[in-house]
Amino acid sequence: QLQLVESGGGLVQPGGSLRLSCAASGFTLDDYAIGWFRQVPGKEREGVSCTSSSGGSTNYPDSVKGRFTISRDNAKNTVYLQMNNLKPEDTAVYYCAARSYYCSAVRSRFDHWGQGTQVTISS
Length: 123
Description:
Helix content is 0%, strand content 50%. It is mostly beta strands. The strands form two sheets. Strands 2, 4, 5, 6, 9, 10 and 11 form a seven-stranded mixed beta sheet that branches. A four-stranded antiparallel beta sheet has the order 1-3-8-7, with no helix packed on it. The relative contact order is 0.32.
């Protein structure tokens, strides 16, 4: 059974860093794009970053460009989201999701989702 499990969330101060992990099981990442999304209560789930099956990467909101970096280690079947210079507005539940081959910022185009990990940025 295809599963995604996020980890690495937590509470950090503004300006701090976190690295989120998305571990896949039941399938190999070679043929899948993995996207990171985030959601705060009352708002739509927002695409943050994505890595395609070929290893290309995209960050979607201007607010994370230059601060977030997505990477993948197919040997470990894991995708990472390195988040630096974190801001209070980055506070959200972060989800990873999988779809075949190509990235998308559109939530509905992803077939498989993890359970999410909470990221809280606060002093």
